[in-house]
Design goal:
The chain has an eight-stranded mixed β-sheet, sandwiched between helices. A hairpin with a 2-residue loop joins strand 7 and strand 8. The model has no long low-confidence stretch (mean pLDDT about 95). The chain has two domains: about 180 residues, L-asparaginase, N-terminal domain (Rossmann fold), CATH 3.40.50; about 120 residues, Rossmann fold, CATH 3.40.50. It is elongated and about 65 Å long. By secondary structure, it is α/β, with parallel strands linked by helices. Belongs to the asparaginase 1 family. This is asparaginase. Keywords: Hydrolase.
Length: about 325
């Protein structure tokens, strides 16, 4: 018999038609009726009741704290809206990076209360993983796929196969109620002690031709961390609208500038081109093949521990929960 704790947070899976459109409206008691207990003990805690659009980093902390306050379970399932599920999965991958039990996020594109819903399958699959998994970590289970939490990205707005594992293999799949491992996750000892601290003073900038350098001055005034989605392999303009000088200005002020690519697949090699080497020389911290959702969460978690640039770079560039350097 397995002891499984379900943490309900709202989302489409628990939504019902209301005056202004779909919104969370299903109680945790109603949600619980869709979980096949078999011989297992399944308990439920209503942690949040939100459309995931409204879920914030402070909610990641609340979810993590709830899990840690209930240590006597074998596995944990979090029902969650899809729009920010990948951010929450990444956030928990760092907040609970040394937690040695399976934590599974799932949800649906169509509410449980609708006839043609994907929610019933996703709940059943999440239970299969919770019962069968002999590995630990944070995972997203959706449309039969088991994805490492820090590698999940929502890539479709309506289809059932809404999530993809970016730059990392899908770990397993659930077929006909059975878990089929495709890539065994190897969790070495956590490189850093997990700490339930976040600094949300972080901005995200997508580079585009014509982007003004004024944004860097704004972030400097906020004394914030910055993530820049660069072109290609990490390049930013250094002629005309000189964004590289903005990176240097921030780095000289002791502020972190993490550089990723706006291209979803295959990561970046910041040293491949001169334009990328200029960014690195200016103090840009390369994020390799991490996805943006993971970088946002990892930078918030890192800044919650230190504002020393050398330490920030070390933590950002150290693989945690399979988030980095698979390619």
């Amino acid at each position: 018999m397995k002891k499984i704790l379900v943490l309900a947070t709202g989302g489409t899976i628990a939504s019902t038609p209301q005056k202004n459109g779909l919104a969370p409206g299903m109680t945790v008691d109603q949600l619980s009726t869709f979980f096949d207990r078999e011989d297992d003990q399944i308990d439920f805690i209503p942690v949040l009741d939100k459309d995931s659009t409204n879920i914030q980093p402070e909610d990641w902390l609340k979810i993590a704290q709830t899990i840690l306050k209930n240590p006597d379970f074998d596995a944990y399932i979090i029902t969650h809206g899809t729009d920010t599920m990948a951010y929450t999965a990444s956030g928990l991958s760092y907040l609970l990076n040394d937690f040695r039990k399976p934590v599974i996020l799932t949800g649906s594109q169509i509410p449980l209360s609708f006839q043609h819903t994907d929610a019933k399958r996703n709940i059943a699959d999440a239970l299969v993983v919770a019962r069968a998994a002999d590995f630990s970590g944070i995972f997203l289970v959706f449309d039969g796929q088991v994805i490492a939490g820090a590698r999940a990205v929502k890539v479709k707005s309506h289809s059932f196969d809404a999530f993809a594992s970016i730059n990392f293999p899908v770990l397993a799949q659930v077929k006909d109620g059975r878990l089929e491992m495709l890539h065994t996750p190897i969790f070495s000892p956590a490189p850093f002690h997990a700490k339930l601290q976040l600094d949300t003073n972080v901005f995200l900038l997508k580079a585009f031709p014509g982007l003004s350098t004024d944004f860097f001055d704004f972030v400097l005034k906020k004394h914030a961390g910055l993530i820049v989605e660069s072109f290609g392999n990490g390049g930013l303009p250094n002629i005309g609208r000189d964004l590289v000088s903005g990176v240097k200005k921030m780095a000289d002020a002791g502020l972190a500038v993490v550089v990723t690519t706006q291209i979803m697949n295959e990561g970046q090699d910041i040293d491949l081109y001169e334009v990328g080497q200029r960014v690195a020389a200016a103090g840009g911290i390369s994020a390799g093949d991490m996805n943006t959702e993971a970088i946002v969460a990892k930078l918030m978690w890192t800044l919650g521990q230190t504002h020393d640039l050398k330490q920030i770079k070390k933590i950002i560039q150290t693989p945690i929960a399979h988030d980095l350097d698979h390619i």
